[in-house]
Design a protein that fits this description.
Elements (H helix, E strand, L loop, with lengths): L2 E6 L2 H23 L2 E5 L4 H9 L11 E5 L1 E3 L9 H8 L22 H16 L13 E4 L24 E4 L9 E4 L1 H6 L2 E6 L5 H9 L15 E7 H4 L14
Parallel strand pairs: 1-9, 2-3, 2-5, 5-8, 8-9
Antiparallel strand pairs: 4-7, 6-7
Helix pairs in contact: 1-2
The protein binds the ligand O=C1O[C@H](COP(=O)(O)O)[C@@H](O)[C@H](O)[C@H]1O.
InterPro entries: 6-phosphogluconolactonase_DevB (IPR005900), 6PGL (IPR039104), Glc/Gal-6P_isomerase (IPR006148), NagB/RpiA_transferase-like (IPR037171)
GO molecular function, one term: 6-phosphogluconolactonase activity
Enzyme class: hydrolase
């Protein structure tokens, strides 16, 4: 799996370069299959993404975008903990993606996490419309991931049994160590089948976990993301990478 680790001098330059990469990914996807499928994380990611996308929204063919969530908390869609609400407030409400192409968790199932995960897998199946038994997992054009200080990504937490899920596309947990406890998450097979996976992490608070994952190759959940046919990118800033000593870091000229 090819891997590129970028570091930028500021969140602003990171966001502008990320926008540029998404534009290239969008154009490549549209040339292949006339739609652009993206999975979004919650946390700090939507705000960083918004900084880049909303600076030049005219560059994108929003009517071709399909948005899913890499993970979601089982709460009503307008709840303060909802990743969908976070993404809407950050940028989704300000770009013309057709509502039918934005795929939140089913709000009627937030009290039934197993059913919510199954329903979300069906939402994915409808959009990806996989044909043929040989095709086991959807191939997202881009999956955008965050990473917590414990190394979790999506809602895949250290030492959790969900790390071993190798059949389902979407799983659920009721014991997330980070609140809220009940969530659904894309599984590793889906993340690792994506065409492009991009981690975004900024700030000095991410230094210790980046040292463990990038310098020391510890198999924390984020470190186990390993696209089978795709490319893995880390979009970091100077503050996050300041203490890395063993990792090759690309510092591109900034836009
Ligand atoms: O709980 C979650 O946390 C992670 C990391 O968040 P961050 O604020 O450290 O960026 C996030 O990627 C995930 O989607 C979210 O549910």
């Amino acid at each position: 799996m090819p891997r590129t680790v970028y570091a930028f001098p500021s969140t602003e330059t990171l966001a502008a370069n990320l926008r540029d990469q998404l534009l290239r990914a969008q154009d490549e996807a549209l040339a292949k299959h006339d739609r652009f499928t993206v999975a979004l994380s919650g946390g700090s990611l939507p705000q960083t993404l918004a900084q880049g996308l909303l600076a030049h929204p005219e560059s994108f063919q929003w009517d071709k975008w399909h948005i899913f969530y890499a993970d979601e908390r089982c709460v009503p869609l307008d709840h303060a903990d909802s990743n969908h609400r976070l993404a809407r407030e950050a940028f989704l409400d300000r770009v013309p993606i057709p509502t039918s192409q934005i795929h939140p968790i089913n709000p009627d199932l937030v009290d039934q996490p197993a059913a919510a995960a199954e329903d979300y897998q069906h939402q994915l199946m409808r959009v990806f419309a996989l044909k043929g038994a040989a095709v086991r997992f959807p191939v997202f054009d881009v999956i955008l991931l965050g990473m917590g200080p414990d190394g979790h990504t999506c809602s895949l937490f250290p030492n959790h049994p969900l790390l071993d899920e190798d059949e389902k596309w979407v799983s659920y947990l009721t014991d997330s160590p980070k609140p809220p406890p009940t969530r659904i998450t894309l599984t590793y097979p889906v993340v690792n089948h994506a065409h492009t996976v991009i981690f975004v992490a900024t700030g000095a608070s991410k230094q210790p976990v980046l040292e463990r994952i990038l310098d020391r190759n510890e198999p924390l959940p984020a470190g186990r993301v390993n696209p089978i046919h795709g490319h893995l990118y880390w979009y970091l800033d100077d503050a996050a990478t300041a203490t890395l000593t063993q990792t090759t870091i690309d510092r591109p000229s900034v836009i």
